[in-house]
Structures are given as structure tokens and as C-alpha cells.
Amino acid sequence: MRWSLVVAACLAFGRVAYGHPAVTKPCASCHEDLHRGELGTRCDGCHTTTAWAPSTYGLAQHVKYPLDGRHVGTPCSGCHRGERPRVTFVIPQRDCLDCHANPHGTKFSKEMVEAGCVACHTTGTWKAWRVDHRAWPLTGGHTRTACAACHPGTDPAAPASAFRGVPRACEQCHDDTHAGQFRGVPVKACTDCHSTETFRGPFDHARTRYPLEGVHADLACVRCHPTTDLRNGERAVRWRLGYAACSACHASPHPRIAVTTIECSACHGSTSWKEISGAGAGFDHATTGFALRGAHASTACMGCHAKGTRPPSACEACHRNTHQGRLTGPCAECHTAVAWSDVRTLEQHRRTRMPLTGKHAILECTACHRRQSDRAWSDLPVDCFACHGERYRRAQPDHDGPLAFSRNCAQCHFTVAWSPAFDPTLLRASTNHDASFVLAGSHRATECASCHVDERRRKLVRCDGCHTTGALRTQHRTRITAVAADCLRCHPRGARR
Fold first, then answer.
1. Could you tell me the sign of the dihedral formed by the alpha carbons of 282, 283, 287, 292, in that order?
2. Are 41 and 29 in contact (CB under 8 A)?
3. Which of 130-134, 147-151, 228-232 has the highest mean pLDDT?
4. Greatest CA separation found in the chain?
5. What would the pLDDT profile of 329-359 be if each residue is shown by its tens digit?
6. Are 311 and 318 in contact (CB under 8 A)?
7. Nearest alpha carbon to residue 196 among 215, 178, 170
8. 467, burial (CB in 10 Å: exposed 0-12, middle 13-18, buried 19+)
9. Residue 296: phi, psi to the nearest 5?
């Protein structure tokens, strides 16, 4: 009997519950408002008529404070506290700091005012920071370093983490293992040699005053940079050597050559000490004060440096003086390094008492220097008569006769040709007659006064003194005058020779 009453009551309750859609009365008219008016008078926003629990309020309805990240998995009672069934759903907390403590104190007041905690943190996890590290970009090994390594906690009374005021210079975080070697002039920063990828990375020696080439590139660093004991008992590698010259490490096998005069690199290469730069090997011998030219350029180094010493630069130190000391000047005045026989005759003769001009320039050397076997080139006379005396005696008119011509042939003759000669009186008058009107043929023997009517005005010339009208008619087909100006129009350089 009892069970039948229970079943009947349940069926009656079920019919009432499923019949609620037809009820128009508010829920509060039958049910007690457990929320004390916090959520309004309508219950169907969170509950159904089928069952009071569970509630239909979910993430989609949590629009005033959207739930994401870790907030999704947080129990409702984590924020909506109170003893059931009197749970408080309308709460004033809306900012992060309403629920979470600020471990930074006042260091990020500006960011907190502008965006709050979300400026750096996310709701997924508190340790997933969204930090703009552009002020000090993280590269290399710094990207793998824990934040706490640079941003450690300070004393217990201070905020948990220090993110501002962190030093940025390398030496403020890393120990100077070089014992201050690079703090002197010129000052070198850590980044000049090291990168953030690794502290012991490869070093580019080309950035120093001593690039490594040849065998130097294969040497271990310790060969030049040893570990040194410091005064304070510590040990450090000596990186700044203070020298870059070869002589600082290598002994000189040339005791007669001062290292301050010629550097080792002027003759030796870095590939091998025995690789001596010679002719054609890139060594500029001119830097020694003795440029290699001509035959000297093809001579083997040991031809002059037989004993590894610096030979004298004078020619006679290597070449025998074939002139037996009769010429006092240096060999270079007449000879070149191209060939011993190339004496540059014309050029050298211009520096002597007898420059070669005219037909003298095409004569063989033996025509004047007949005693070649004696190698005597400087004991010849330079006056014309010494070579042309016989022609002087046979010349007409008789030069030794009453006219008594000078034995200085250059007063009347050219080196271009012995004849025709010119009148020396015109030269004494500062006039070169052949330069204006060549005296050829019968003009050579004509008296000056025959043409120059006024001695004071030598340019005033007449032709009719010798060329009469009858003679001119015979010599010319057309009618002409005997005026000198007319003659010179047709014969500006004089008569034919």
C-alpha cells in the first residue's frame, strides 16, 4: 500500500513538472529565491523546469568577464564564494589585482594604468610572459638563459623579481677573464671579439694588427699567447702582445742587416722562411735603394747576395773597370743595366765638351775613338781643326793665305755640311743670313754693300745693282721689275745652289 502511494505521488509530481510551460506565474511565487535578488526575478536564464540542477549557465553566458586560459578550469567557487546554497554570484572583482597579488610593487605603474597585468602576462599561465625585449634583444645563448639568471629576486622585503634596472654591459654580468688587458688604449669591448652565441667561439685574427697568413694560420694560439702568472696570484692568457714585427719572435740570420732598416717581410714570405722573394716574385727591390733593371732583374739573388749579406750598390763592386781608371765618373753615366754596350751615345755626348750634331751624330764611334783597346774615351780634342786640319789646308780660297781664316771652323761652317760656308761678319752683326735668305751660288762671293745699300738698315735690299734689266728679261718670260721686294716674292729663300 505504501509503495503504491509513493508511485502515485511521483507520477503526480512528474505531471506537474512537465506541465510548467503552461504555468504563467513567476518562479518566486512557488520557489524560494536562493540568490536574494542578485540575478533578477527570472530563473529560466540559468535553470530549466526539468530539473533545478545542473544549471544551464556556461562559458557563453559569462560575457561580462569572459573565461579563457586557466580561468576556464577554475571552479566557480574559486571566485564565487559563500556557504551553499547562499552562493554569491555578483562579485566586484574584475581586474587581475582583485584576485592576484602584484609581485612587482610599483615598478610597472605605467603599464598597470595602461593595460594592467595583460601587458606582460596571459591567462594560460602566469609564467608565460609577453615581454617586449626590443630594448635589449636576446640573441644566441641569451635566448636559452632563464629569466631569473638576469632578473633575480632581491631581498625578502622587496618585490619578488627585478625587471628594471638590470645592467646591460657584458662585464656587469660576466667576469673579465682577461685581467683588464683590453681596458687600456685602445679600449676593446667584449663584442669586438666575442658573440652571444658562445664565449669560446672562433676569433677572426684579420681584425687585429697582425692577420694570420701562411704557417701562422696553423699555429696553436698558445704558441704566441701563453698563460702568465699575475701579481695577485691569478693566471691569465696574455692576449695583447704589444708587438707585431717578425724580429720579436724570430732571430735574424743576417747580422749585417739591421732589422730597423729592412723588415723581414721585405724578402721572406709567411708560407716558408726559405721562400725568398726574388725577381718576378713580387718583391720590390727598389725599396732597398737599388732597383733591379735590365739584366739585373734576371740575375739570381745569390749572384749578388752570395753570403747572405747586403752587397754594395756601386757598379765597380761587381763589375771590372775596363777603362783602367781613366774615366772618373760613375759607370751609369755611359752604361745602362740593359746591356753593357748600350752607352746611349748621343745622350751621353751632350754631357761632354763635344755634343754630337749634324753629321757627327751618324759617325761610328771608332771614327774618332780609334784606340778602343785602350778604353780611353776622354782624351780626344774637341776643336774642329784637330780632325779637319787637312781639309782646312786644301780649302779654297786659301785659308792659310793672305785672308788668314780662323782655325775655328765653326765660324763659317756647319756640322750638317762642310759647304756652303757662311759669312762670319753677318754673325758678328747678330744676323744669321741663311735663316732669312740663303746665300748660294754667286751670292756667296758678293760684297754685302752690293745688296745692302744702307749699312744701318740691313733689311733695305736692292737687286738691280747686279741684275740689270737686260739680264732680267733674258731670265724671265714675263715683264718684271728690279725691285727687291718683287724678287723676294718669287725667291724668298734665295737663289738655287
1. negative
2. no
3. 228-232
4. 196
5. 778 777 777 777 766 677 778 777 888 888 8
6. yes
7. 170
8. middle
9. -65, -30
- For 262-314, what is each residue's pLDDT tens digit? 677 777 778 877 666 543 355 677 777 788 888 888 887 777 877 666 777 78
Find out whether 100 and 94 touch, Cβ atoms under 8 Å: no
- Sorted by sequence, the CB contacts under 8 Å of residue 126 that are 6+ apart come out as 100
| Contact indicator for 337, 387 with CB cutoff of 8 Å | no
Residue 439 CB neighbour total at 10 angstroms: 20
Interatomic CA distance for residues 205 and 217, integer angstroms: 9
Alpha-carbon distances, residue 414 vs 2, 376, 392, 427, 436 (angstroms): 171, 27, 14, 13, 16
Residue 247 contacts residue 238 (beta carbons within 8 Å): no
Taking alpha carbons only, the member of 250, 230, 225, 229 closest to residue 240 is 225
If 0-12 CB within 10 Å is exposed, 13-18 middle and 19+ buried, where does residue 54 land? exposed
Cell numbers at 462, concatenated: 736692292
Nearest one of 138, 20, 122 to 70, comparing CA atoms = 122
Whether the link from the prior residue into 492 is cis, omega within 30° of 0, is: no
Q: DSSP for 373-391, please give it.
A: GGT--S----SHHHHHHHH
In angstroms, the CA 418 to CA 387 distance is: 13
Domain boundaries, the chain: 21-94, 109-237, 245-313, 437-497
Nearest Cα to Cα of residue 427 among 451, 441, 445, 411? 411
Q: pTM value?
A: 0.38
Interval 414-426: pLDDT, tens: 888 887 777 665 4
Nine-digit cell string for 46: 540559468
- Count the neighbouring beta carbons within 10 Å of the beta carbon of residue 446: 14
Gap between the Cα atoms of 83 and 72, Å rounded? 22
Segment (H or E) for 228: strand 227-229
Residue 404 cell numbers, joined: 788668314
